[in-house]
Write a structure and sequence with these properties.
Elements (H helix, E strand, L loop, with lengths): L9 E6 L5 H14 L4 E5 L6 H10 L7 H24 L3 E5 L2 H10 L4 H5 L10 E6 L2 H6 L11 H18 L5 E5 L4 H12 L16 H11 L2
Parallel strand pairs: 1-3, 1-4, 2-3, 4-5
Pathway: Pyrimidine metabolism; dTTP biosynthesis
Keywords: ATP-binding, Kinase, Nucleotide biosynthesis, Nucleotide-binding, Transferase
Pfam families: Thymidylate_kin
Length: 227
């Protein structure tokens, strides 16, 4: 029987604004590399590309765009990196991602756009093997430096985003692929909890790369829940 080829794991860190995603993602990257793991950190939106610069201008409230137009730009920004993500995973590199399609869905649906419409542009993207959602309370958000500096950092908006994340989690949660972490805890405690879930995937996985919101895969997942 031929040996199964391992690939790198795809791990996404999601969450509300000022939940500590960037800090925790950077610390995770350092811990993985110190353990000898070939790992790479991506950030979405990637503000360095042509599309990313348009998004950056919008987020800083320096320009205005229709809600549907900015949603599609966020999705296009992820598609720009899709081939590179798959190539890196197949080469054995662990990909750690600060925000991904779930944020795009949550923030746009929170603005009132139809959930299924918001999901559609990202169907077929590489799907994470694990998504870690950092859940922070409104009280803690308000205490953290810089909150309110960007367009979506308003308490009412963040509550709507949280509600959409809960819906996404219900859809993605089978098999432990979606984990909610209390981001109100001390930074070291959050880091410990994240590492507890990441460590089993650090050496890679033998599972094939899945596709985000693939209908056939969704049907298989749902049928497995009732076996």
């Amino acid at each position: 029987m031929p040996e199964v080829q391992k690939r790198g794991a795809f791990i996404v860190v999601e969450g509300l604004d000022r939940s500590g995603k960037s800090t925790q993602s950077t610390q995770l990257l350092e811990k993985l590399r110190s353990a000898g793991i070939d790992a790479k950190l991506l950030n979405f939106p990637d503000r360095t590309t042509t599309i990313g610069k348009m998004i950056d201008s919008y987020l800083r409230s320096e320009s205005e765009l229709d809600d549907r137009a900015i949603h599609l730009l966020f999705s296009a920004n992820r598609w720009e990196a899709a081939s590179s993500i798959e190539s890196s995973l197949r080469a054995g590199t662990l990909i750690l991602c600060d925000r991904y399609a779930f944020s795009g869905l949550a923030f746009s649906a929170a603005k009132g756009l139809p959930y299924t419409w918001c999901r559609a542009p990202d169907v077929g993207l590489p799907a994470p093997d694990l998504t870690l959602l950092l859940d922070v309370s409104p009280e803690q958000q308000a205490k953290r430096g810089g909150f309110g500096a960007e367009r979506y950092e308003k308490a009412e908006m963040q509550e709507r985003v949280r509600a959409v994340f809960e819906r996404v989690g219900d859809e993605m949660g089978a098999g432990g692929r979606w984990v909610v972490v209390d981001a109100d805890a001390e930074q070291d405690a959050v880091a410990y909890e994240l590492w507890r879930h990441v460590e089993p995937l650090a050496q890679g996985t033998e599972e094939p790369i899945r596709r985000l919101w693939d209908e056939e895969e969704e049907r298989r997942r749902v049928s497995e829940l009732y076996l």
